Amino acid sequence: MVLFVPSEFVVPTGFETDMFRARMLSVNDVVKDFEAVCQSAPLLQRMFPTWRGWPKGLTIEQNLIDLGWHQKEFQLRRSFAYTIVSLDEKTVLGCVYVEPTQRADYDAEVYFWARETKIGGAADKALAQAILPWIEREWPFERVAYPGRNPSWDDWAKLPPKNRADEA
Hints:
Number of strands: 6
Strand content: 15-25%
Distance between the termini: 8 Å
Order of helices and strands: EEHHHEEEHHEH
Largest sheet: 6 strands, mixed
Structural class: alpha+beta
Strand order of the largest sheet: 1-2-3-4-5-6
């Protein structure tokens, strides 16, 4: 079995800026996360067109299941979901997902989104300015894809899958 991150790698607990904090997403975030996702539905559907309309139809129960799955995957070191919260922890501002990839030429996929109304008009830019160097500095990946950003969704769809023999 190929590990997403080396067994000796210490997974980052998150990071903090003067505007927000990133920490592991957990079931304890369900109410605030649900509110953030629902209020951001049009943005999320534009940003992630391949996610089959998510979060359309999302219920708080389904969100709890999703958060439990993200939390367990984090514990098992299979993928890592971080919530972006205000410094006082009262508001979920977005999320970051660090995931393994099945695409050739990359070691990982990173997705993120931010609520425009909560961080300000430049929320996505502020989050990107924090996430990109954090991934580069703290994670063991050489080639990270930010699908929908770099590369574009069209270019991402054209990438071949990883050769399974390379993973053995």
